[in-house]
Amino acid sequence: MSFTIKVKEELIGLGKEEKTELSAIIKMSGSLGISSQGLTLSVITENAKIARHIYELLATFYQVKSDIRHHQKTNLRKNRVYTVFLDTNVEQILADLHLADSFFGIEAGIDQVILSDDEASRAYLRGAFLSSGSMRDPESGKYQLEILSVYSDHAEDLAALMRKFLLDAKTIERKKGSVTYLQRAEDIMDFLIVIGAMKAMTEFESLKLVREARNDLNRTNNVETANIARTVTASMKTIHNISKIIDTIGLEGLPVDLQEVAYLRVNHPDYSIQQLADSLSKPLTKSGVNHRLRKINKIANEL
């Protein structure tokens, strides 16, 4: 199950019934038709549980019985598409949900009544995500939450709703419409809190922390590996120079204070500078050992 589906199923399971949530779902996934009895409303979703949720919201608020129909997509994914179809009291429902102007082309954004009320805003964002929201699985390490709108005005109003809750929401135009999106993990977690998906937020945060801990460990290992590689390279260079000295003037040709360091370096190529310092008959600091190794390298270079 994708993380998006987990979030949506948690939202459905909250048991919250808000008209503004229904308003968002109908605005973003609904379409009107005409029959001999008047207007008809069709709300489309690919999730059977969301279809049932829409059915129950309509029944709760307006005491109407809609039909849930489905058909199979003809593309390779072959998902089922569910349509919640209603042919009674459609005009009254649209008017009550402040959607009449939206469907008749007068208003493409979000009603000011919703924009000005925090609880209504939370419910609207919940409905918007249920309708056309998606998010990357946090395990991927690439964080993105998106809500697709048909109209740019609506996408901008969604971003404004999110900014009310201090979320850094942005919009972008795509082929299928306008997208309102969040990219920062902290904003996505806060959004999940805003819409009430606390379980999903907790799981998201846990996955994020595990991934960050794993990345920190990998970075530490990489640094240690790089340090070891540098140490080995420096050690081999010095050993090569000491061999050159042995072949020309011999170790006894070195100053006395350098001879023991040279002997230890040749016989213990895997030793760190600290280990060399600790192994001397008269222990030195790391700085002192490095100084003597530099002097040995200089002598070899001058031969």
Automatic annotation (TrEMBL):
Keyword S-adenosyl-L-methionine: no
Residue ranges of domain WhiA LAGLIDADG-like in the record: 122-214
A Pfam short name: WhiA_N
Domain Sporulation transcription regulator WhiA N-terminal: 17-99
Keyword Cell division included in the entry's annotation: yes
Span of the signal peptide: none
Domain Sporulation regulator WhiA C-terminal, residue spans: 218-300
Keywords in alphabetical order: Cell cycle, Cell division, DNA-binding
BP GO terms, sorted: cell division; regulation of sporulation
Family under the similarity heading: Belongs to the WhiA family.
NCBIfam families per UniProt: DNA_bind_WhiA
HAMAP family membership: HTH_type_WhiA
Function: Involved in cell division and chromosome segregation.
Protein name: Probable cell division protein WhiA
Protein species of origin: Streptococcus intermedius
Gene: whiA
